[in-house]
């Protein structure tokens, strides 16, 4: 049965979760993790209160002052209520677990901010269904997912029907889990993410042509890389996996070093910073 909760304030873009089944799934997912919990967008405590029963430290962030006052009267002592916009909240600088029912119109903004933060270990996020699928690479990964795959694993848990929210949104939601990798697949985040952006925005009939046109990898190296993995040259950047991206980045940096070394041998007095056609520094 749905948990009894009032609807969200329309001006805050809130669609509160009212399904006890989905709330139970969130609590179960959090129970598989360890450490303090930070909940973004606590609302009236539909998830906060069940989370608090696990005995772990919980910090619940909510922007609506009326709901903050009500929450402070109902939560146990080990739950801290913070009145703050989730886009401005500064998370703790120690390992913690993130939980959030994200307003659909803020999902991308919040995710960009969250993924760039360093200290959380796991996240259980309720987002729009199609966003959950794209983040997890179902049906093709997005630029955002490919940019962060070497540091995180994304997984879709379940679809959440629109009827599980009040007020009822026009689209379904989806439960997404994000887990920080213990060992990143890539070290150079800045260079790698620039590479991914260039590939996703580059022109060509397939990933092989796009990558070579950007100048990151030579045509012979790209052909050999694709062949060794049995990949079609016409497949798109969205079809690559996390491991593909990490391996392709390693190839790009290897190719760059080879080209620089060759050019230095031929022109030892020249300063060649990059083999890329557009002459950008890495």
UniProtKB/TrEMBL annotation:
**Keyword Methyltransferase: yes or no?**
yes
Residues annotated for S-adenosyl-L-methionine binding in this entry: 15, 17, 41, 62, 85, 101
- Pfam families, alphabetized: RrnaAD
The record's Gene3D superfamilies line, in alphabetical order, gives:
Vaccinia Virus protein VP39
Keyword list (alphabetical) reads: Methyltransferase, RNA-binding, S-adenosyl-L-methionine, Transferase
One Gene Ontology cellular component annotation?
cytosol
Ribosomal RNA adenine methylase transferase N-terminal domain: from which residue to which, for each copy? 22-182
| Source domain of life | Bacteria
Task: Select a single GO molecular function from the record's annotations and give it.
Answer: RNA binding
The family database entries (PANTHER family) matched by this protein are listed as:
DIMETHYLADENOSINE TRANSFERASE, DIMETHYLADENOSINE TRANSFERASE-RELATED
Into which family does the record put it? Belongs to the class I-like SAM-binding methyltransferase superfamily. rRNA adenine N(6)-methyltransferase family.
Protein name in the entry: 23S ribosomal RNA methyltransferase Erm
User: Per the UniProt entry, what species is this protein from, by scientific name?
Assistant: Allosaccharopolyspora coralli
């Amino acid at each position: 049965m749905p948990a009894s909760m009032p609807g969200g304030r329309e001006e805050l873009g809130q669609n509160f979760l009212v399904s006890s089944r989905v709330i139970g799934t969130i609590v179960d997912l959090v129970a598989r993790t360890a450490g303090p919990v930070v909940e973004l967008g606590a609302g009236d405590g539909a998830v906060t209160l069940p989370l608090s029963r696990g005995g772990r430290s919980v910090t619940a962030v909510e922007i609506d002052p009326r709901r903050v006052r009500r929450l402070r009267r109902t939560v146990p002592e080990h739950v801290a209520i913070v009145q703050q916009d989730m886009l401005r909240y500064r998370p703790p600088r120690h390992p913690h677990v993130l939980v959030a029912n994200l307003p659909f119109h803020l999902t991308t903004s919040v995710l960009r901010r969250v993924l760039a933060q360093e200290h959380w270990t796991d996240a259980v996020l309720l987002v729009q269904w199609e966003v959950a699928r794209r983040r997890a690479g179902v049906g093709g990964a997005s630029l955002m997912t490919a940019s962060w795959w070497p540091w995180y694993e994304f997984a879709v848990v379940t679809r959440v029907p629109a009827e599980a929210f009040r007020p009822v949104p026009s689209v379904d939601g989806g439960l997404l889990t994000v887990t920080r990798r213990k060992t990143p697949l890539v070290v150079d985040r800045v260079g790698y993410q620039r590479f991914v952006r260039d590939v996703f925005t580059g022109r060509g009939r397939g990933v092989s042509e796009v990558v070579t046109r950007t100048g990151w990898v030579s045509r012979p190296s790209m052909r050999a890389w694709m062949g060794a993995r049995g990949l079609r040259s016409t497949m798109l950047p969205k079809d690559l996996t996390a491991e593909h991206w990490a391996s392709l980045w390693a190839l790009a940096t290897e190719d760059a070093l080879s080209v620089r070394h060759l050019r230095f041998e031929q022109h030892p007095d020249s300063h060649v910073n990059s083999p890329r056609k557009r002459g950008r520094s890495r």
